[in-house]
Amino acid sequence: MKFQLIKAALLLIVSFSSSLLNAQNYSKPESVIWDEINKQYLITNTNNHVNGFILTYDPETEELGNFINTGLDSPKGMTIVDGIIYVTDVTKVKGYNLKDKTQIMNLTISGATWLNDITNDKSGNLFVGGMDTGIIYKIVISSEDVSSFINTSSPNGLLYEEQNNRILVCSWGNNAKIKSIDLTNSTITTILNTSFSNLDGIVSDNCGNYYISSWGANAVYRYENNFENRLMVWVGLDGPADIYFDQNSHELVMPNFNSSTVMFKSFFQLCLKPSLVSPENNATNQAVSSTFLDWENFPGVGDYEYGYTTDSAFITDITSAITNTSEVTISDLNFNTKYYWRVKARSSQGQSEWSEIYSFTTEPSAGITEFGKEGLNFLISPNPAVDIITVKSRTSFSSLQYDIIDLAGRNIKSGLLDIKSINTTINISDLKKGFYIIRIEEDNKQIHQQKLLIYK
Fold first, then answer.
1. Phi and psi dihedrals of 283, rounded to 5?
2. CA gap 219, 238 in Å, rounded
3. I need a surface site. Which of 8, 71, 129, 132 has the fewest CB within 10 A?
4. Chain segment 25-75, per-residue pLDDT in tens
């Protein structure tokens, strides 16, 4: 008897350890969603439909962790409403608080044996697809009241669109259809007959394009917002399940059910314009020898085209170039001149529209003097700088004081300048990337000030 108890305890320990180990790896992942509260992805894992679990994925550390690893059988679709994540689990819909993982819903859908995807509207309702029953169920969250909302064949992926007040449904089976449910009048219509089999997930990007995963083709297809101009954008997948499009990172997140992997792919979106960062619009006193242009970097972009000119209409005297980075330094500018600049992104899929046009005005004279005594000029270079700057003067001094101040007005670095030899250097390698002001004083009187940009 004692031996049997010890054996049972060992088996329990081994089983428990195996469960914890398994929960740190993908096992038949089905669905992905972004948890904004905890800044992480959540991934349901069906685990061969036994003791399923939900994993977390931190995009910063690329580490997996456990969110829920007990009390689930075969979790699939997810949606988040007011800090609660709702997940389908075979015959039930379960809800968990994202902050403390407390379970707040455990609702059985009578008659259903294979609940799949789930979505929500903005009126406090959940919509759940029953693959086996062909019913899309409606759940009022506040009362947990369940009703059969609409009938359709093998509903799989669900996507709620607030702007159209509708739910898009993609279907499992051959020649799968994509349908639209009008929530205003509870009617369902077919908007696309496809030649694909076994559609699983449907999502949209920032530009209104739709992405649909197909098990039959092991691929993802993209359609424009009117469901025309189909393009295969991802191939060679292995059971592409309920996909997710991250509209912040512009990435499509793909759970491969069969191979138990989750993949990320960036997609360049033609409707998005680059956002210009620096110089700020209408900036002044920019260096003629080195003005730093910086703009938002887009994932999936091949390169950028930038242009600048003194013509606000961008018709004449345009200087343009191509770069594969989101920052460049331009030079050989004219003193005391207003320039206009813009950027557009390019890829193999096409190119974006031009960004907004920003302007900047260059320094009034050599040396970039904003404050100065007659006959005195300082030149601080390079600007932008990385780790060392050189201060040059037309006049020698026995000693000067310098202060480097951030844009919040805090004195970050101070020291003495010995310009007996007309120039000296300052080590700025300990300063962070950003904009600063450098001031030079003689006998506690400011004689020079200018902007300094440090980039790493």
1. -65, 155
2. 8
3. 8
4. 999 999 999 999 999 999 999 999 999 999 999 999 999 999 999 999 999
